Amino acid sequence: MSLQSSKIPATIITGFLGAGKTSMIQHLMANNAGKKLALIINEFGDMGVDGEVIKGCGIPDCDESQLVELANGCICCTVADYFVPAIEKLLSQDPQPDHIIIETSGLALPKPLVQAFNWPEVRTKVTVDGVVAVIDGRAVADGLFATDPAALQAAREADESLDHESPLEELFEEQLGCADMIVLNKMDLVEDGSLEGIESEVAKHSRQGVKSIQATNGMVDPRVLLGLEAAAEDDLDSRHSHHDDGHEHDHEDFESFQVELEPLEDPSVLDVKIAEINANHDVLRVKGFIDVPGKPLRHVVQAVGGRVQRYFDRPWGEDKRRSSLVVIGLHDMDQAAITKVLQG
């Protein structure tokens, strides 16, 4: 057996806020063909919403001991303190996991995380089987990765030497430029005739030879995503990054805060409120849980832009019933005004 094959494979799942990473992980877990999957979830925000959603997935034999959450931090900046211990915790289990899945924060630069697998404590035990970028197809079709697509294009045509990239667009390019596989998700929301434009935009920022596949609700056969054998930690030079001359903290352009709400008899009232803060403030993502009186199940809220998804997922159980939302947006967004709308 070669050294490479003796290592446990790890798949890094990257993608912008709300692209569908968590849904895809749930699908992988439900269709893992008997493999023991371990999860590391890196979130931006103090309340671990994605981890809680996965715990409430209702999948038989879903072992919460195989899930490690790293909240409110950049994995690659905290390798010694958080990432290495997380890997060691998973590898200390008997039996060891067959495959490790890492869901990055939607604001993460993926290449520095791949570089973290070259740390001595990790390199001899785990290899990056592949980096999978999950892309919100509807968002690409709508030009949402540029602050003002028309103005941006005009400025570039006028002066190509200028750097007009927004933080969102740069993240989009970073995630594509590091990927071994690209999943064009939420294609059920894409209008007919838009696919060619989406594929063209994605191809501009992808590495040569990297394939893209289409998906809805993150439903991709695990055989397509796992087993790429990319050994990405040995192939860093081909993965373009804007930050190759020095890693900048990938969260510095963004911030998050938590809003506590009263129990809501009708959680649909949030749809209008979220649409309002999206239209008037620099909000990128809203996610959390709502206590609906008289209902035994927790109500999940996931919003990207003006699109709001809500559903009941699992009983509250021993958890304290609460209504709480995490708001993620650009740095210096008006937290007081946003909170007033959501609590009003």
Describe this structure as you would to a colleague:
It is a single chain. With 344 residues, this protein is of the alpha/beta class. The chain has 2 domains: 236 residues, Rossmann fold (3-Layer(aba) Sandwich), CATH 3.40.50; 90 residues, 2-Layer Sandwich (Hypothetical Protein Yjia, Chain: A,domain 2). 31% of the residues lie in helices and 25% in strands. The chain is built from 13 helices and 12 strands. The chain has a 7-stranded parallel sheet with strand order 3-2-4-1-5-6-7, with helices on both faces. Strands 8-12-9-10-11 form a 5-stranded antiparallel sheet, with helices on one face. Strand 9 and strand 10 form a beta hairpin. Helix 2 runs parallel beside helix 3. The longest helix has 13 residues. The radius of gyration is 20 Å and the shape is globular. About 1% of the residues have low confidence.
Largest beta sheet: strand ordering: 3-2-4-1-5-6-7
Q: Kindly, what is the distance between the CA atoms of the first and last residues, rounded to a whole number of angstroms?
A: 62 Å
> Mean of the pLDDT scores?
80
In the CATH hierarchy, the third-tier topology of the largest domain is known as Rossmann fold
